[in-house]
Amino acid sequence: MESSELFENTSGRWIWNDSSKHAGRRRAFNVSEFKRLAAAAVNRNAKDVARFEKLSKGGFNRTFLITMCDGFQLVGRIPYLSTQPRHLVVASEVATMNFLHNGAGTEYMFMELARGKNLGDIWFDLSIEARITVVTSLVELESRLFSLTFPASGSLYHTKDIQPGLERVEVPIADSAYDGHFCIGLDTSLSFWQIHGYQAQSPSEHLSNLEKYLQTVPYLVPDGNSTLVRPTMRHPDLQPNNIFVTDDFRIASVIDWQHCTILPLFLQCGIPNSLQNYGDSISESLTFPELPPNFDKLSENAQFRETMLLHRRQVHYFYVVATASLNPTHYDALTANFSILRRKLFVHASDPWQGDIFSLKNDLIDLTKNWDKVVASQSNTDGETRHPCPIAFSEDEVAECLRLHDAQVDADESLRDCRDLIDIGVEGWVPAELYDEIKQREQEFKAEALKAAESEEERQQVFEHWVFDDFDEEEYS
Asked: Is position 471 within any domain?
């Protein structure tokens, strides 16, 4: 393989902003030195490297498989330029993995190749019994992770990797040989660094909502339950592609600890996104999921939809049931008073602003409506809330926000439908060999949208604001 191919993204293209996205993922490095470092990481010589190959694309890193002469394999990763802050992200992930720069001219990390089957390749083909085994094994792993104790929130590092002057909190280790090796430092969670790198944003209404959120924060911290505020580590993205399983569907390894953080349990708890089925009354009520009584009389398409829905409900249900049995600390946090609302407020206030002024405001309105219940533990003996709600919205504000929020939800659903029709993901990435076919499909879809416009003005708006055209991403950073 030519060195230039090692530096570039060759597995796919993007439907919009293809050139700039490729540029952001180009990483040139000293290949010979990288191989030497890989060999040194496992106490071998550079001459022992028998094969060096680029693996499939990753969202944040370029990944390489290094095979030694004796057959031993390890994975080397280099973060893209768009991954921020690169040094801290790599240092934190290395420290996190060690806890459970260099002549190559770039940040890097090496780890042994994950063994087992990638769950993402087999997840949708598994029987319900196999899925229950996977979910149970996952909850057992989380239980061990949740039992670890930390002195503060943030991200985990080797103490030697934190620059002098940066705030840190030492993590005490029972083994004296490692005491002082680890510390808690800057939070590397993706939401804090994504795209903007802390550059100032100036949407006035969102700033107003953030100010309102900050006024409520002191009352959102659970009162009288030290477990809920205990710093807790959790994997940042527990989805099937990051999990490897054995032949009997026990978890063999979990990869991609990048952007892992330690947070108070009441903010860290929750059903993993790949397993949760919120928005469904059966799942939210934890009713045992079953197929509808008239399933045999449904059409083939309707049976397929009901079967997929049953699978989502089953995974949600069995995750919660297993958590109640094997990780009661997490279950108590999951079912705590307004647990979901507290987390939604934190997430929507933490996310970099990208034009959404409705999500946080909608959460704040929900908070004002339920204030007495949310702060019930802080009431006096007569049941009266000691702290009146510090924020308020007029009836007109509430009505307008809810209207716009519903409109935004509809627009998001329409965009998802468009992406599904064209067969592209959220970022517009497609396999390189399918690019021409999918790009043509997108252009045909655009032509149909222009033809369906009911006026010249609407047609012009569709043409100028077509969501799959190139655009200046600097305007959103």
From this structure: no
